[in-house]
Amino acid sequence: MIFKNLFMEHCPKCKKVLETKHSKPFKSIVIKLCPENHYQKEFHPALETYIETYKVS
Ligand SMILES: [Zn+2]
User: How many domains is the chain partitioned into structurally?
Assistant: First the structure.
């Protein structure tokens, strides 16, 4: 169950709690973002999947 993981997730790099945002053009998409920009996770409820992005600086 994906939605259980929507809350209180942490960045794999700095362990900060990810911020939650909603994509403007696609309101159903939930974006979880590290405050330091290390990591991003997009939830696509319609597709029942998510996309993880690791930002390498
Ligand atoms: Zn981070």
Answer: 1
